[in-house]
Here is the input.
Amino acid sequence: FKKYMLRLVDPIYSKLGYESRQDDTHLDILLRKKAVSWACSMGSEDCQQKAQEKFASWMGMVEPDAERQNPVDVNLKYETYCNAISDGGEKEWDFAWERYTKSHVASEKSTLLSSLGCTKQVWLLNRFLNMSLTPESGVRKQDGSGVISSVARNTVGRYLAFDFIQDQWKAVKNRSEEHTSEL
Here is the structure.
């Protein structure tokens, strides 16, 4: 299936590329986002390599949290973060977590939180799920369900998230009710 899908999406991905261009129309930007998402998820080596390179470039910066320092295209942040974290290990995950905790931009926090669930490392997914219930972890109450959702979207974490909800149902429910009562 992946080979078939990659054959379908590769011409579009090749035409649009990974990098944005000055003459891009709004539709080019939206189509590139979809093409990159599909190409990377179906195993395009070029796409995955570019995502890793962009993320590694960001990781190599002296001040990665400085305004306008992130080399990742704003329209491809989730795709880049998710693929780099998926193909990476603890170092990439921890870097993204640190960016999440230091960010003051809601959209960036949301993108990073969703991307952290993309890792293929089961122990990192477990740690992330447990952080969703730990008050001092840095995961806000209102983001707990987002953590579980991001892990559940991952094929590696799907059953892990299901088991976590079953095992921790009372804690998940209580944390959710605490957040709702604060509103």
Q: What stands out?
A: The CA atoms of residues 74 and 108 lie 10 Å apart. The mean pLDDT is 93. The first helix runs from residue 2 to 16.
